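Narrative progress, year one. The postdoctoral researcher (J.K.) led the effort to move from monomer predictions toward full complexes, under supervision of the PI. The following entry was the first complex the group processed end to end, covering 392 residues in total.
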Amino acid sequence: MSPRAKALGSDEITGRLSEVPQWSVLDNRLHREIRFGDFSEAFAFMTRVALEAEKLDHHPDWSNSWNLVVIDITSHDAGGITGTCFSLASAIDGFVDR
Amino acid sequence: MSPRAKALGSDEITGRLSEVPQWSVLDNRLHREIRFGDFSEAFAFMTRVALEAEKLDHHPDWSNSWNLVVIDITSHDAGGITGTCFSLASAIDGFVDR
Amino acid sequence: MSPRAKALGSDEITGRLSEVPQWSVLDNRLHREIRFGDFSEAFAFMTRVALEAEKLDHHPDWSNSWNLVVIDITSHDAGGITGTCFSLASAIDGFVDR
Amino acid sequence: MSPRAKALGSDEITGRLSEVPQWSVLDNRLHREIRFGDFSEAFAFMTRVALEAEKLDHHPDWSNSWNLVVIDITSHDAGGITGTCFSLASAIDGFVDR
């Protein structure tokens, strides 16, 4: 386990949520739901997330139903939210909020 | 709503499940869970499912967590499982069980 | 071969090019080159094109080099540019020019 | 430019080609052509290559025409074939030849 895989404390998580205001904390995970125009747009977004997740070696727990994508990010290794979780959340925001 | 979008009765569903023995009925949906070697393999599979779903204009409710893909298929329009649900399930089997 | 698979004459092609002004005719194909911000953006675009191509059952000849995607569309069956080629080109424009 | 981005000499390239016997050297690039069962299978393969390329930060020059994928790998930075080119080629082989 790399040093970055340490779960953050709740104060630190609260502080860093301001960096990714579209995300909330749900069941000890970073959570965001995004609705797109249609399935094609949703799945193209998922492809970008997949590329980023593979690069970071940190993969979301996510679901899709047509134009809706629901994303939860946590570190199963660290047992909570880590700095890398915030990195992935921030990258995801870059794909959708520009 | 096209004619094919009519929900099947439970006898018909039970009968057709023999065509797709890897699937069960869960909450009025066709359900299957598939575990792959890693995320890359799982997401490549999801891409094939996406292509098929778009072609059939019938999209699954599905989730992914690293190498695990969980798929539920129903027709929201018809309010149940239709013939197209079985077509999608059968096509998915072709991607994974060969 | 479906009726729509008939190659268009040069007058008709010239006329319909005004519908897709980003495309030119090169070697009897509809041709467009598109540069994106990076590979991730380019490949997400390609995923949308793949979904559309599979739905239309009409696939481009295309290449990618990091952020560059080069697309050629023709009908190998019809031996030239068909109405479906223009449909695919127009759908592609919808993914990139909005 | 990272140290690994140094172009290999022709003796070293020849030696390492034995690790990836499906590849040849064409115009100072590693070259392989792969034909799949259909477009869906080809594009799912491309998605795996995309994930690997993004992880390695080393992207192929490639083209697709329905079930055919043609891949060329070189380092534009190094002006030739590098060790990372062989890493990508080897990973690609793992997606298709198992």
